[in-house]
Known about the structure:
Blueprint: H1 6-14, E1 37-44, E2 47-54, E3 65-71, H2 81-90, E4 95-99, H3 117-132, E5 137-147, H4 149-158, E6 164-170, H5 175-181, E7 182-183, E8 186-187, H6 190-208, E9 215-217, H7 231-240, E10 253-255, H8 258-262, E11 279-284, H9 290-299, E12 304-309, H10 321-338
Parallel strand pairs: 3-4, 3-5, 5-6, 6-11, 11-12
Antiparallel strand pairs: 1-2, 2-4, 7-8, 9-10
Helix pairs in contact: 1-5, 3-4
Amino acid sequence: MTTVKNALVSASVLVALSSTNVANGSGVAEGANVVGSQKVTFKSGGVRMAGNLYLPPDYDVTRKYPAIVVAHPWGGVKEQTSGLYAQQLANKGFVTLAFDASHYGESGGEPRDLEDPADRVQDIRSAVGYLSNLSQVDSKRIGALGICAGGGYTLNEAQTDLRVRAVAGVVTYDIGAATREGIEGAPVSADNRKKLLENVDAQLTKESGGSPVLVEQLIPGREQWNGSTPNFMREAYDYYLTPHGSHPNARNLYVVTSPGLHMAYYPLEHMAEISPRPVLLIAGGKAETLKFSRDAYAMAQEPKELLVIPDASHFDLYDKPQYVDPAVAKLAEFFGRNL
């Protein structure tokens, strides 16, 4: 059976799965069963969405609070890095919502493990609408935050959603550019782009004829490593396929035709449309994805900020306190000033 080989999509796949298990040392209990949190549901394009809503520790039912939607990376779930950032920002005084995107976790959507940019953007839009209708939320003070691929989707969504009053991305990942061009240290050649699309097309033809949707591993196991395996891939494995960051709802699978949807996706093309609403980009100084944050910053208009955290890799900014703490402090200051 023709498939999209891991070697052809490593740059597109491995960077985007940037999430960490907040049940392991991050301060968020499994299933978000912590004080000030509650499981919620809402609809996105007819799909039932599942989220964890976090409330400030001094929550007062008579008040209306600023609120923040938090979008997870490709392949992640709400119990991972988005839940970590959501809880920590709730502790700073915001109502926050971390949710499973369509096709993932406890949310609906078929086929499972499909990474469709259009669905991801609509999910964020629906989450904003959900928060706007909560009695404890001030609908004029809603912000959006995305991590890795969630950052690219969130910046894209905010370009045409004026309800988002301030937007931020942590290690923003442009899933379109990564598929077309790759990341630092893992470029994608023109031949590889052609082969990827040929494989996607072949599989789509089979599925049109009745074959089942094909899924494969998102991050390859150690048995596929060799001497040239990049450190980025090793970090991805450590994050998602060991107790460090694994979660049972994050299945390490992807629909192999997904990159065909990414190839023509340009989430940062209209960054200027966000202005005069403020934009914050946070990236790691040693991250292979730093270019995407710099690109987003360059295309945005004022007011805009770019914080590069020295010595942090892409994956460091998911649960390591020495990097997450300054990122959260900056996010709290940014949203506090602008919401």
